[in-house]
Every structure is written in structure tokens, then in C-alpha cells.
């Protein structure tokens, strides 16, 4: 329940940041328990896509299955290009560190981190 005197720093359909709470779809954190917050980049592995391209290159040496190699290479390149890193709101509490919100949109995560930092500063 929100009081009239509570300052809101950020709100959207799944996240609310006030001077006393950080509310996500699955958890509520008390701002007094959050000691720090930052953007954390989750780097996705590209190994399987690269292996697929290499596997496709091996097919290029055979006259019978040359086209299969081209298709495998094309799919591998598409997969490699489509792999995007994810970003998380990483908060530190007395219980340790946790990724509270994860998104591929870095700007969205940065807005939440900025709001949380403002709430921490406001708390004093």
C-alpha cells in the first residue's frame, strides 16, 4: 500500500521504484536493505553459432552436399547476428547480489538503475 507522502522515482507496467520500495513482478525489496545497484551485462555465448558455420564450411568441400553447407553457413551467420547480450538490474543487499530485472534493452535497465540510485540518495 502506497502512502500519499511516498515519492515515486519510476513506474511502468512491471516495475515501481519509490523512496521506500522497489517492486518488480515477482519480488518487493525494501530500499533500506539495498546498499548498491548497477547495470550488469549478461554476455551470451556465440560458440554454437560459430561451430555451426565451421561445420557448414566442411560441407563446401563436397560436390554432392555443397548446397547443404551453404544453408548451414547462412543459418549459422543468422544465428550469430541474432544473439544479443542481456542486461540486468543488479542489486546488492545484506543477503548478497541478485539480478532483479533482465532485459535486452539496456536503456530500459539504465532508467530503472537511475531511479534506484535516486531513491537511495533520497533515503540518505
Automatic annotation (TrEMBL):
Biological classification of the source: Bacteria, Pseudomonadati, Bacteroidota, Flavobacteriia, Flavobacteriales
Name listed for the protein in its UniProt record: QacE
Keyword terms: Membrane, Transmembrane, Transmembrane helix
InterPro entries assigned to the protein according to its UniProt record, in alphabetical order: DUF6232 (IPR045629)
Organism in which the protein naturally occurs: Chryseobacterium endalhagicum
Transmembrane segments: 50-81
One matching Pfam family: DUF6232
Domain of life: Bacteria
